[in-house]
Amino acid sequence: MIRTYRFAQGTRIRVRRGRYPMDPALIGRTGVIVETDDYRPDRYGVVLDEEDEVRDFNEDELEPTTGTG
What integer pLDDT is reported at residue 69 of this predicted model? Predict the structure, then answer.
């Protein structure tokens, strides 16, 4: 089976509550997807607005958004 990603690199996203526990302060934050990983197909590397570090999120923790958030 060939894995395709739900979101492409460069997609603007908003963080939402997923199945794993997360810091509640992250919910509602926006950013951009900068990495995907063939070895972890449900994980995305995201740089949140006003940050420089790449954070890992599960696919169900992200929703696409339009504009600047």
Answer: 46
Domain boundaries, the chain: 12-64
* Residue 54 identity: V
- Comparing CA positions, the residue from 32, 24, 27, 23 lying closest to residue 50 is 32
Q: Do 66 and 12 meet the contact criterion of CB atoms below 8 Å apart?
A: yes
Dist. CA 69–CA 22, nearest whole Å: 20
DSSP category for residue 36? E
pTM across the whole model: 0.86
Cα gap 27→36, rounded to integer Å: 21
Sheet containing 55-58, strands listed edge to edge, beginning at the edge strand earlier in sequence: 55-58, 43-48, 30-36, 12-15, 62-64
